Amino acid sequence: MTIADIRTQAEAKMNQSITAFQNNLSKIRTGRANPALLDSIHVEYYGSQVPLSQVANVALIDARTISVQPWEKGMGAKIEKAIRESDLGLNPASMGDLIRVPMPPMSEERRKEMTKLARNEGENAKIATRNLRRDANEAVKKLVKEKLASEDDQKRAEAEVQKITDRFIAEIDKMVAAKEAEIMAV
């Protein structure tokens, strides 16, 4: 493995951690409805727990309402129960086959909790990025120890990995700030 391989691998893994962070951010509730909010809900389906998206169509009716359309007739009550029992604080209402999930307005206190949650997710993503930086630097040191690279190469590689890390951490900070602004917008 060369220094270029280590750098490329570290950058690819940092991209993966950013993608995972974006996914986690999308699940944090804002004032608007978002179908991704229901991704974490599992429903009992013929004896096993399956994600809601595998037993129903989840879509937006308007900015404050999510619709859940079960694919089978008997699933409506189970889906409604699963949404109600989730820790999202949602109260679904059945209208025939369609289940409407209105988003209650968030209180100031709840908005602050959500911003804390977003910051915490951001900090976890930064920690993952820094761990990847450390792993890359250790791999470079191992190459130097095995005399496959010079100490000058090590210094250059560590500086490049640090630049990549700084770029990803700045991107995480931007994403957290945007999410906080979205949460605090009334």
Features:
186 residues, 4-stranded antiparallel β-sheet, Gyrase A, domain 2, 2 domains, 4 helices, 16% strand, single chain, Topoisomerase I, Chain A, domain 4, elongated, two-stranded antiparallel ribbon, alpha+beta, Ribosome_recyc_fac, Ribosome-recycling factor
Using only C-alpha atoms, the radius of gyration works out to: 22 Å
Which spans of ≥5 residues are poorly predicted at pLDDT below 50? Answer: none
Which secondary-structure class do the elements indicate? alpha+beta
Helix content, binned percent: 55-70%
Oligomer: single chain
Give the C-level CATH assignment of the largest domain.
Answer: Mainly Alpha
How is the largest sheet built, in terms of strand order? Answer: 3-4-6-5
Using DSSP, what is the number of strands? 6
Distance between the termini: 52 Å
The biggest beta sheet reads: 4 strands, antiparallel
Going by CATH, the homologous superfamily of the largest domain would be Ribosome-recycling factor
Q: Which sequence of SSEs, written as H and E, runs from N to C?
A: HEEEEHEEHH
What is the 3D shape? elongated
**Total discrete domains:** 2
Give the averaged pLDDT, no decimals: 88
CATH architectural type of the largest domain: Orthogonal Bundle
Strand content: 15-25%
Tally of helical segments:
4
Instruction: Predict the CATH topology of the largest domain.
Output: Topoisomerase I, Chain A, domain 4
Protein name: Ribosome-recycling factor
Pfam families: RRF
GO molecular function, one term: ribosomal large subunit binding
Keywords: Cytoplasm, Protein biosynthesis
